[in-house]
Fold this protein.
Amino acid sequence: MVQTARRTSPPTYVDANRLWVDSRLRYQVGLRLEGPALARLGARGERCLEIGTGRRGLGARVAVTRFGARDVLAVDVHAASVGRARLATADLGDRVRFQVADATALPVPDASVDLVLSFHAFHHIADWRAAVAESARVLRPGGQLALTEMTARFVDARWLRAVSRHPDDRFDTGELVAELARCGLQVGERQLRTRLGGRVVQAVAHRTAPGT
Ligand SMILES: C[S@@+](CC[C@H](N)C(=O)[O-])C[C@H]1O[C@@H](n2cnc3c(N)ncnc32)[C@H](O)[C@@H]1O
């Protein structure tokens, strides 16, 4: 297992996270920039599970409109967000379902999903390594985990820590890719992009068959 030295972080003074996360601008960035970027990295799948959908059901919509998803289960740990996301995606009909669930205990069987998708949820999950392992568990061999994430360089920036709460143990791109590989999720060179000087990483990892 790859061990990470715990970073010391400055305290958080104000929780202004929701100002950005729930904004229409953030939603448009996800829909128009991050979703298409993951599509260019090869994100595809009919049976999809989204982790950390937030209040607008962003990933569920991207999955249906960009990745060819026909059946999306979108989960979030906050019940209020799930309720809001359900309303926000009503136009997608029965292609999208929502459930309150924790990324470290996903409510689906082993090897039952083609695509696990997440926009900026893993850096909010205290045990992000458990969420990676859980994503690998639910993916069928050949299935994909598609992520867009802030790295430690972004999350641990003093100005961001001052206005937004995140758990202490964050990952850089190398740590994320190493943990994916440890769980049987391989990222090819062409399935990985970093942005903003390594502050944002986008990746599409493939679930290897057991024993390969
Ligand atoms: C930064 S928001 C991203 C929301 C949306 N995906 C977006 O990109 O706009 C992170 C989301 O992850 C959810 N989340 C945090 N920890 C979680 C966990 N352990 N399991 C599932 N969802 C979680 C939060 O409730 C929140 O909705």
